[in-house]
Amino acid sequence: MIGKWKMVVDTPFGDENYNFKLNAISPHVSGSIWTDMGSASFDNGKLEDGKLEIKFDVDTPQKASILIEGSFLYNSIIGTVQIDEYPKMIFKADSYDVNI
Amino acid sequence: MSIYNIPIRTIDGEEDGLSNYKGKLTLMVNVSSKASYEPKCSKVWSYARTCRQFWQLQKVHDEFKDRGFSVLAFPCNQFASTEPGTNEEISAFIKKYYPFVTFPFFEKVDVNGKNEHPLFSALKGNEKRNYSDTAADQSNAAQQGQNLAGQAIARIPHGYEKFIVSGDGVMISRFNWQDMPLDEIPRVMGAGWTIREALDEILG
User: Which class is B3-203 in CATH?
Assistant: First the structure.
């Protein structure tokens, strides 16, 4: 599966939009996530039994670990984003260019 | 005068909330629960950075509370209007989005300017002030006063300024927002100690 999704993260400070690109040959997932403010790539994601898990580190002024967990619902993904140990934020991602 | 004698309500409206901390070492910090670092920083990242402050404050609170220590938080809306709510709204927001926080909160206050709370006047050492701290005052007298006074009585420039207050109510040490509670080396070389080192040494 190769595709792109528009992702909306429900943050405590309001919704925020991201673009999300996945290249999944189950269970291996690679891809990237980006906004106008920057991007990050990952190559060690997992997709098993419809469950998506992506971890990557970013090096902003402070280093941080990002964990994205989600489940597919048709071509959409619903899940959570977590930075370090902080509370998780819910996201929904709708596909706009998917080839399965 | 002991800082703990200054009247201030808790965020739940309890009068003279500070008097409960007489005899304890405290870390007083002006906070904003919606601290946004936009436009340079995304909402996700702004939340993470605010979490990082609260998370590390909670860690030192937990680490030292059994030795007679507490973090005390004072919401303030003076920095980019990042704490606009009422005390009730702030309290609800903290409980919902920072559920790991257990250290006490006090009522929302101004920390600079004509309406600044007497607590922050005392923390900044304003009784020693001999100049206006408004940025507009560039008079020779003000500048000379600022030079003489130095950091000890400077206005608070940002959220998360941290003040260590002794059990008898004297401000001992001051750290700015970039000094994180779990820093392992002083942010400014030669500053002497990190927040954890300071707490550990003072508590003995």
Answer: alpha beta
CA dist list (Å): A43 to A38, A82, B70: 17, 18, 43
- CATH superfamily label, A2-99: Quinohemoprotein amine dehydrogenase alpha subunit, domain 2 (2.40.128.120)
Q: Which tokens is A69 given? A: 């967990």
**What's the pLDDT tens digit per position in A49-100?**
989 999 999 876 678 899 999 999 888 999 999 999 999 999 999 998 777 6
The angle at the Cα of B62, spanning B48 to B32, to the nearest 5 degrees, equals 40
CB contact under 8 A, A83 and B97: no
User: Which residues, in sequence order, are CB contacts of A37 under 8 Å at separation 6+?
Assistant: B41, B42
Chains A, B: CB contacts within 8 A come to 50
pLDDT of residue B131: 47
Measured CB to CB, residues of chain B less than 8 Å from chain A are 34, 36, 41-48, 51-52, 55, 93, 96-100
User: CA of B111: how far to CAs of B27, B74, B147, B179, B195, in Å?
Assistant: 15, 9, 21, 18, 21
B117 three-state secondary structure: coil
Q: For strands B25-31 and B69-75, give the pairing.
A: parallel
Domains of chain B, by residue range, sit at 3-203
Mean pLDDT of chain B: 87
**A60 neighbourhood in chain B, CB within 8 Å:** 45
